[in-house]
Design goal:
Blueprint: H1 15-23, E1 29-30, H2 31-41, H3 50-63, E2 66-72, E3 78-84, H4 86-111
Antiparallel strand pairs: 1-3, 2-3
Length: about 120
Amino acid sequence: MPRRRDNRLDLLQGTLDLLILQALVGRTRHGYEIARWVEATTADALRVEEGSLYPALHRMVHRGWVTASWGVSSNNRRAKFYALTAGGQAQLRVERRKWTRFSEAMTRVLEARPA
């Protein structure tokens, strides 16, 4: 019996910061909300695992890109909520430019005719 393939894509190096920062534009979210936002926004093509998400969030807090504060989630549980800072907004612009350059370069490669 053939194995069922998972249609999710592996995250490319460097995309996690971009995904997290974008998830925090305009609102505060806790970690689980960030992960679910990524899945919903990408139609389940991308998944952010806890083992990657929380270390990245801690690193972003340390770098001043996001703030963290304790609160209560919609299901009445204590959760740490993350919010984008001005530094995080600036970093998001940097990450977007890098992604755009990468994406454009890959498009050129895929459209090139082999010599």
